[in-house]
Amino acid sequence: MTITVIIPYTGNKMGLSQLLVSLQPQLTASDDIYVLDLSVGKSAKEVVMLYGSTRCYILVEPTNKPREQALAYGMEYMRQNSHEGALIIDDNVVISTTLIANIKKAAKLDFNIIFPDYSIVTDRMDSNFKWFGSPMSDTEPITDLYDPIKDSCVYVKNDVLGDLKPVRLLNELVVILPEQK
User: Fold this and answer.
1) Are 169 and 115 in contact (CB under 8 A)?
2) Interacting residues of 10 by C-beta distance below 8 A, sequence separation 6+
3) DSSP H helical segments within 26-98, as ranges?
4) Which residues contact 103 (CB under 8 A, 6 or more apart)?
5) Which of 23, 73, 79, 143 is the most interior residue, by most CB within 10 Å?
6) pLDDT digits 0-9 by tens, 46-95
7) Are 43 and 10 in contact (CB under 8 A)?
8) What pTM value is reported for the model?
């Protein structure tokens, strides 16, 4: 199963570097990272050159388009490259070392929109954050898809335009940090 990871980059260099370091070991050579550089200074390429590896293809696209239109470009990139889905993840999200594996397992179970559980941090991250989730087993159907916080980290299957089957992974927790520049 192949995926495109779409990162809408708003200028949070620390967040993007942390995401690249966390994501790359979880991806295969056939997966891609697509960074949409929405930042004022267009600094994504600089960060990717420091923290990117040859493990997977990383594309940086500078854009002045609004976030939604830029994400549409990312989804089109996923379809053009015949990837089965896209993980859209903001540059202020901390993920576990098992997020990709558990998303891929849930996608095989015929879910087409997958949200990990999340925690919002306003001051500092919990020192007991689990850097790994147990193998995917527990899910919960979602009825409210229009929570903007959930949009910080969501997997969308390539065929999502059909019957919506959204689910929340109960064993995966992402942490949403305050905006940083």
Assistant:
1) yes
2) 38, 39, 90, 91, 92, 179, 181
3) 44-51, 67-80
4) 3, 87, 114, 116, 136, 155, 169, 172
5) 23
6) 999 999 887 788 999 999 998 888 888 889 999 999 999 999 999 999 99
7) no
8) 0.86
Q: How far is CA 144 from the centre of its chain?
A: 20
Identify the three-state secondary structure at position 123. Answer: coil
Return the residue matching tokens 């335009």. 161
- Rounded CA-CA distance 97/127 in Å is 16
Phi and psi angles of residue 160, each rounded to the nearest 5 degrees, phi first: -65, -15
Tens of pLDDT, residue by residue over 17-59, are: 999 999 999 999 999 999 999 999 999 999 999 998 877 889 9
Which tokens go with 99? 């997020």
Helix (H, G, I), strand (E, B) or coil at 105: helix
pLDDT at residue 62, rounded to an integer: 93
3-state secondary structure of 55: coil
Which structural domains are found in the chain, ordered by start?
3-176 (3.90.550.10)
β-sheet bridge partners, residue 94: 175
How far is the C-alpha of 70 from the C-alpha of 60, rounded, in Å? 12
